[in-house]
Amino acid sequence: MKIDVxxxxxxxxxxxxxxxxxxGVIERTSIFSDALHDSIDEFINxxxxxxxxxxxxxxxxxxxxxxxxxxxxGAGKKDKLxxxxxxxxxxxxxxEAISLKADNIFLYYAFELPIxxxxxxxxxxxxxxxxxxxxxxxxxxxxxxxxxxxxLIYFAKTNRYLNRGxxxxxxxxxxxxxxxxLVNEPANVISPExxxxxxxxxxxxxxxxxxxxxxxxxxxxxxxxxxxxxxxxKNEPKLIIMRYTGNPDKKNSLTALVGKGLTxxxxxxxxxxxxxxxxxxxDMSGAAAVIGTMAAISSLKLKVNVVAIIAAxxxxxxxxxxxxxxxxxxxxxxxxxxxxxxxxxxxxxxDAVHFAIEKxxxxxxxxxxxxxxxxxxxxxxxxxxxxxxxxKWYDRLHAASELSGExxxxxxxxxxxxxxxxxxxxxxxxxxxxxxxxxxxxxxxHQFVQGKPWIHMDIAGTSFSEKPMGTDGxxxxxxxxxxxxxxxxxxx
Length: 492
Prior knowledge:
Elements: E1 2-6, E2 15-20, H1 34-47, E3 56-63, E4 66-74, H2 83-99, E5 104-109, H3 117-132, E6 149-153, H4 160-184, H5 192-206, E7 209-213, H6 215-220, H7 224-230, E8 238-245, E9 254-265, H8 285-299, E10 305-315, E11 327-329, E12 335-337, H9 345-358, E13 364-369, H10 373-379, E14 384-388, H11 391-404, E15 408-410, E16 428-429, H12 437-446, E17 454-458, E18 464-465, E19 475-476, H13 481-490
Parallel strand pairs: 1-6, 2-4, 2-5, 5-6, 9-10, 9-13, 12-16, 13-17, 14-15
Antiparallel strand pairs: 3-4, 7-8, 8-10, 11-12, 14-17, 18-19
Helix pairs in contact: 2-3, 3-4, 4-8, 5-8, 7-9, 8-13, 9-12, 11-13
């Protein structure tokens, strides 16, 4: 899809989107013909259309025998218009245009947006690309329609900031789509080994360094918790380490991104219900978000140092699968009694976190994972649950999420709940019981961060969408990529 700024307006525009503020009247301008203005006025009067927030209507007219679609979108009160709100309105506009099978779209804001030009360009490109996305690789007869061109009608003296915003918005969208594609692939395509191969391709394309450890090397590292999760599968686990050094002068400032990489999760012997397994290909959404973020920060050439660590495995049932009641020794030396084999993600994450601190010498850690159904029960599908032990770093993440429109909600790191993880026969048990499951899962990981600044993102609810919503779905959302990229921009 080509996205650009247009100053010379052609006589015929196949599809025209006009956005205006609430109670606004589209003033006559030489940009558009009198005939077009007459058609718009007639439609508004006949339909009693108001430019209220998010209101969308479209109509068709003929221009010299050719069909022209006109889409009207209300932006609500100008002083209430923010970047996340504009992003939602634009997603609705693109969906309407796609439903009309538009190929060439012209976008016109009939009022002055209270948003910086850089952000406008970014939002237009990001929303156009993300909303147009659909995973159709395995549909033999389906023809997905995607617009060919988007032209922003804009008459500023210079388009420098708009063009830069469009470029950056495309980077954010492409990196998110990279994550979506990985998650949407079925588990018979994306195994731990295949995920490692995809990570290698990304590393080659974006100039990242990468190491992939096989099961023997992981065993020598004594990552027994991680290995146990993958023991029931014929596909051996892989430890994937991707590195980006954007600020070599600041080698003592390294952030570790740890992504949960369960390419399929049956629940093990604590078997999931059958209807809960269909979407378990998405249990590596954290890993996909980490890979997408590494692509984005490299494309933007951010002056940060980041190591991404993915403990990739399949949690299956087999002759060597781990069992409830087993006691495992983690890489840190702490022992864990297994009370539920479906609480497996935290076992892979703790070994990855310990590896990040001891082997990569990370100064701070952020893990992102589809970790608990409790997060979905508490916050639904619109919010990512977050736990953190560092207020300033969390504030950066929250500000980044406000810009990306990916909502987060901080859960309490309630230390007394550590009691729920205590066990008589091992240092810890891997599940805290029926209450506060999202918090106790985070507290379990927190036991292994050695006092380092740490953030935990539970994306169990936000990583996968059953129906279109905003720029997402149906399918993988790629949640986390844009928020994490925004956060790293503030850490340069």
